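To: structure desk
From: M.T.
Subject: fold request, one chain
Message: Could you run this one when you get a chance? Sequence is below, nothing fancy, just the single chain.
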Amino acid sequence: MEGKPAAGKVGSHVTSGFARVMLRHLNSDLEHVSKKGGGARYKLRKELVSSIRLNACHAAARTALNRLDRGTTLNVLALAIAEAVEDTIKWNLWRKPRVGGPSAKAEEQKFWRALSHHNFSAVRAFLARREAAVAAHRSEKWEGQDRTHIGGLFVAYLEAAGLVVKAQVSEKGRRAAWKVSLTAKGDGIYQTAAETLIARARSHPMIIRPLDWTDTSGGGFLCSGASYGGSPGLPKGLQPLPLVRFDHEQGTTLETKLKAADLSTVYAGLNALQRSAWHVNRGVLRVVETLAAREEEIPGITTSEPAIPDNLSDEDAADPQKLSESKAKKAEAYSDREAARSRRRAQATALSTASKYARYPAIYFAHNVDFRGRAYPVSDALSPQGDDLQRGLLEFSTGEPLTREGVGWLQVRLANCWGHGEDKKPFPERRAWTEGNLTAIRAAARKPYDRDSLWRSADDPCQFLAACFAWKAFEDDPKSECRLPVYLDGSCSGLQHWSAVIGDRGTAEAVNVLPANAPRDLYREVAEETVRRLQASADPWARVWLNWNKIDRKILKGAVMVLPYGATKQGQPRRLLDAVKERMRKEKSEPFWKDHKEAWSAARFLSDVVWEVMTRVLARPVEAMEWTKNIVRAVKAKNARVAWTAPSGLPVVLDYRKPDAGQPVRPYSDAWKAPPTLRHYQLSERIDWKKTINSVSPNFIHSLDASHLLQSLKRAREEGVRNLAAVHDAFATTPNKTGKLHRVLREEFAALYATCDAHLALLSQNAPNVPPGKTFNEFKPQAIASSEYLFS
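Reply: Done. Structure tokens follow.
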């Protein structure tokens, strides 16, 4: 069960001042609504009874604060608030169903008793009765335009309370859109919200093992209903969890295909993840909380925000060039500040959640998949798929005393978390690095608060600290259980799969698909070739980049990594510039450009060089990606939908559709200010072919890497690996079981590509008239099973 979304004392206190102002406007508006007729305000008056109106205002304020850490459009915020308000109504009806007298209370007591005894048939029967009771008293269904109208009303109340402000923002190449942002007062409240977490996470870890998946709905949460399409009468926290999370764009077509598919591999892979029990690593939690209480800098944790440049003087503002540059700098600073706030909030949420669940001996994570089959935990607070902090805060609930093999994998884990190039070396050299740094590793575990402690300098500091604690525990008592997850990562997973799909030896060797004595590092090789190109260039920017002398794998990783997922040349300057700025931020160094325009000129020049290197080194995968687009172009002529069945058995449908703007909606309220109307957008039957063409290559490859993940998890569980974690192209288990998991991953990858051209046929069936994609068959897929560094 996901749980009830209560505001909590802290949340209500933070939003109370705003909520009461909002309540006055809400009551004023509803008093003037006719008791007869229809319309959004009539439905709102009928359902939002006086006793829960303040709760609805709190819900609207929390939703706004939760959404506006990165800004949002007016329409999106209005719909989100309408959903929160409607959920408030559903919870009120659910808690107090009008089924007569004391029997309702007695029935609810039976419900909690059935839940505690895992009597799920009784639980679901109770939910069905409650849903029917709620539906019986919700005769007025909220249509799309009603939601837009009601959400708009609450945005007006938020604005009247001084929490938000609306503004029309112009973006290059796009029509000006109305966006909502926090006021100065709201911004101050947000700072409190980021630390006190007034917006409750959508779902937290579970303290009881999730239900196994056996159907397209109803797995994971214990109180999930049985209907795939959802149970509209239930509050959001009690809605059935669908097997496949997808945008409403894919819903209708995909649901039919799912019912007819063999999803046994999908169920088995997800169940293997859900059955893995976790525990909060109290050692890491204690260190991070102590450093936070001391207001000391915590490695990998965002504790500050970029400053916003001051306004120009009147004299400088009269200069068009200076004004343009100032606007660009401010826009960038605001964007950086929003990103920093989002990170701070996520980190604060993770710490708060870890602290809450640290007392439980075992916690679990419900999982489902996206429409390509990629597995995700249903948790936005703390999970094994989180950042370094979240992964460092989690360990398996059970483990084993380390064997000799387990000790070796723990040594590899220490070197991998340390990074700095050690994680790209052969396994013997990684173990040797750990052996050579044991004194510092022991010191990090004994004295983690020292400012020169080794863990503070690691690439993944929190995970490295967790590994240091695990090593110390082993040395203190060799018979103690080691519960540390050891992760095995793929080497540019997208290109690994493309190389196997087309049988391209050159790419396969570059990304460790084929056996070798030492791992290769494609990101480093592209960086080295880029430097050579810069050295041969006469362009002034080439000399500037060479003088900076920091073009390495970390700077170029983001650009290379996204290439097999449909990345375009147009988006690459931003990725490179972000990586350079992040390096400067960490090193606290000044940029080598004088203004915003010059920064982009430098980034565009470097992007051109990197793009040329990448497309030359990876010419064959790039050609294959273009072939997938040709398939979609052929399907476009038939106005059909592109679909295939992934090797996991999951049907994949690309059903992206264009929205249509419905009738204009004007929230009738004295508190409402510009714009004069809102638009309720709804999906049309027109396919968004541009989006479909650009997305086919990444979606195709994601469906293949997801199939490998699910098949590997299924087999690992069958072979006795009980503790499992997966993050798309990274897999984890305890040190003693890592060797077995390592073998399974390689063998399942080889089995997936036993016939190289079989996977291109999955797409070819959409357009039989398009010539088959080119395959090279330059190696035997069976050789993949012997590649030691396929996952390392």
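Reply (cont.): The mean pLDDT is 86. Let me know if you need anything else for the meeting.
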